[in-house]
Amino acid sequence: MATLTTTVTETLTLNGQKYNSTQTKTISSITQCLKSVVTCNATESVLLTFADDATGIGTFDRHSVSYLRITNLDDTDYVTLAFKDGTASVYAVRVDAGSSFIMPVSNTSNEMPLMFATDDDATVDSMVQIDTITADAATGTVDVEVFLALNATTS
Fold this sequence. Notes:
Blueprint: E1 2-10, E2 13-14, E3 17-18, E4 21-30, E5 32-40, E6 45-51, E7 59-61, E8 65-72, E9 79-85, E10 88-95, E11 100-103, E12 116-118, E13 127-129, E14 132-137, E15 142-150
Parallel strand pairs: 6-7
Antiparallel strand pairs: 1-4, 2-3, 5-15, 6-14, 8-11, 8-15, 9-10, 9-14, 12-13
């Protein structure tokens, strides 16, 4: 097992005043990691697939996800990430060129990582599990880097 340490650093000086911040998070018990660059085009492409009981190399156990980062490696175009339950988009986010989306993770070892999005009613008790994450480039092709850390093996 390994320990993943992530650090987000913000540095800003505005009118002579510094507004700097560094936040570090340590995640232990990492047993698997996926790091891959995927080329996305203007047609929606599946980046990741999740299930309760993962089967095969291409599907990950959603309960084992400890960290997820998707970075847009392009220098001009954005990519739209869609988080889906089955075939319906339940959450989408635009990731501009050079920016990253980082999925929040639980702060305790007994909580499942936050792999949920709300349905149309947007009430907390009607959250749905994410089955797929897709990417759709604004124009042309956009490379994204996917970094996924898991705390258990998939079968």
